[in-house]
## 1
Amino acid sequence: MTLILFLAFGAVCVAGAVNLLAQRHPINSALSLIAVMAALAGEYLLLGAEFVAAVQVIVYAGAIMVLFVFVIMLLNAGEEELTKGSRVAILLGVPGVITGGLLTSWVVLRHSGTEAVPAGALPGPPAEIAQLLFHDFLLPFEVTSVLILIAILGAVVLASKPDEAERRFD
Amino acid sequence: MPLPIHIFILVSVIKSLIILIVLLTAVAYTVWLERKVVGHMQNRWGPTRVGPFGLLQPAADGLKFFFKEDLTPPHVYKPLFIAAPMMAVIFALTSISVIPFGNGFTFGPITLPHYFPLIHFELPFHWGGSVIGPYSIPFQITDVNIGLLIILGVTSLGVYGVALAGWSSNNKYSLLGGLRSSAQMVSYEIALGLSLVGILIQSGSFSLREIVDAQGGHFLGFLPRWNIFHGQFIGFFIYLMAAYAETNRIPFDLPEAETELVAGYHTEYSSMKFAMFFMAEYANMITVACLATLLFFGGWHGPLFGPPLLQTVLPIFWFAVKIFCFLFLYIWVRGTLPRFRYDQLMSFGWKFLLPLAIANLVATAIAVAW
């Protein structure tokens, strides 16, 4: 049962990823990416990491991808045209990716010394994750949050025009 | 005793069907209630013609929606135009699946009569006469230990229905409605999530059932131990504001502001496709009311008395009464308040609700740690 579900979610994931590249229209690509995220959440659930699965849906599918879709809608981005360069990229890229994937999987299959993670082995309950984040890895966690804060400040500085601070609505 | 797999599936299907039917009926009658209450507030009668007190009006409306012509304008992006209302209604109905309605009941042990064949999972075929149970069946489709997160996740996906409807209609009013809706929902989701963290700290669980169980009992013998009386009044206020914004209701109904945007994101929709958006909006209202009841108002806790059967039914009754109060509040606010301006909406969300939610979170954390 777990294997069937794993394969089903994996198939959705791969199909979504391929569709993401194949679609010409940005909004279709964004929607395929949402499907990939949702299928990944399903895979996390199968591994017993229900908290990570829920956060995956809330943060990636629910918040970040909404912003992607928002930007596509706001810019009203249309269909992409095929240029000469992209035709060459398809001709060289598709066989290249296939050979690369086959080679990688061959190497991994031949030389895999590590065991696969059994279903339900990852830290699932929120309490365990909280213990990891706020106790065992407190410093990296806080450093990451400071890093993100700096990124937010940088984005605000870059996005704001210098004269806009004076003229407000109120 | 855990349920055997085939009985579990049967019970789940039955529960899902019952809850779906009850939810859709509740959606229909919330519309009726809204028309009736707003009518009385505006010194009108509301629907009176179809059935006593206009009680059959929802059925008539449903029939009308079915027989209306389903127009698809030529300039729309068809796949998304068709998928958007489905997405809206699917996400709106999904979140009800983790909401508990009561404690549940236990049946058994039952001795099956001899003519009753029971197909066990491990035994291929098993004739009656055997004893099954006791089984306990909760009043909830599925009891997961991250129920609250699932609801947040599903509601955060709900924005796609509205946003894609606005975009795929290829109409400036629809697009503006969709843009407003996605901006509004992303902004208020943060305040909504933060307002719930206080509750999570107090009860120490993501499971809606455990959060409700933590609210049993009384303070000083008379005041119920509900979270709203347990220091979460500000949290409730923030939740209420953010929930109004998330469901696109007045005073936050900018995505469909009819004085500026015709009908906003569903301008180009007709017939059942429009009805799906309508259903999604009211189903979302009911979900939000359920969540407020579970998190802040003690869920199904209330005075219990009478024979055992009544004691099983009473919690569901109290739950329904509390939800009704919330829906009435929704309608009351709709009949009372004007709409925000867009910049007011954004500054209220980011400059007032968000800092207030963070302050509430810090205060709760300090109080609990003390």
## 2
Amino acid sequence: MPVDHHQLQARLMKTLNDRNYDEWESLVTEDYTEEYPQSGETIRGRKNVRAAMENYPGGLPQDGFDTTSTKRAAVEATWVKTPTFTFVRVEGTGNVGTVAFKARYPDGSTWWVVIMYELRGEKVAKATAFFAPLFEAPEWRKPYAESKTVRT
Amino acid sequence: MPTDHEAFIKRLLTSLNESKYDDYEKLLTDDYVEEYPQSGEVIRGPKNSRAIREQYPGGALQDRIETASSRVAATEARWLRTPTFTFVRVEGTGSAGAASLRTRYPDGSRWWIVLFYELRGDRLARGTFYFAPEFEAPEWRKPYRE
């Protein structure tokens, strides 16, 4: 039976929001690998990834994620709203997928997190994560762009 | 015939790298929409999408993109190297896909761009762009990483 990407990502998000790392471990493979291309880091094994989350400076706050709803046009895209992450966009078939969500960090900054992931069976085996900060729309682009209320 | 996502993205990036905006426009639908969730901007139509590239402060330098090869381990993922973008990862089936690539801006900074896109026929109908800067790996994560 094909994996339900929406459901899996919603479960993953919930475990992270709840800081329920035992539950989180059950959703990834033992050799789960996480990559951060922006810094060149690779974290191998779910124990290391869990440790990195648990040891995040300042702690990953349980209420640190934006829960307000934002409006966003998305043609033929599927959006999943989770209790603490604002929006999750999930697209996936077979064993690969992508997800994007907005998260707030302990210092109060808000970032978009975009993840390309690969499944093995019903578990996540690999994730390549990108961290994209909010920014002000530049003046020079105003003649060509509309403004939406995505930012917080 | 299903769209060859790799070939399509390669054509798109080549047109941008070479500043061939006439070619670029032909790859977009007339009602193409480009979104930047980080700033809340929405750019509608091929003409506006073209204009923001042509009007980019400092100019769209043809040699701005890093060509040196970089290594990114990717199990069972498909990576495509283009002449000017370092790496492009393309995943897509049907009408939707995702691509990531690394580029350099006129100020010398290096960024990853992640693009979620939707095709209609053999043209790009929507692109959602995320811009992620490179950063130094933090000390505290050293015990857990390579």
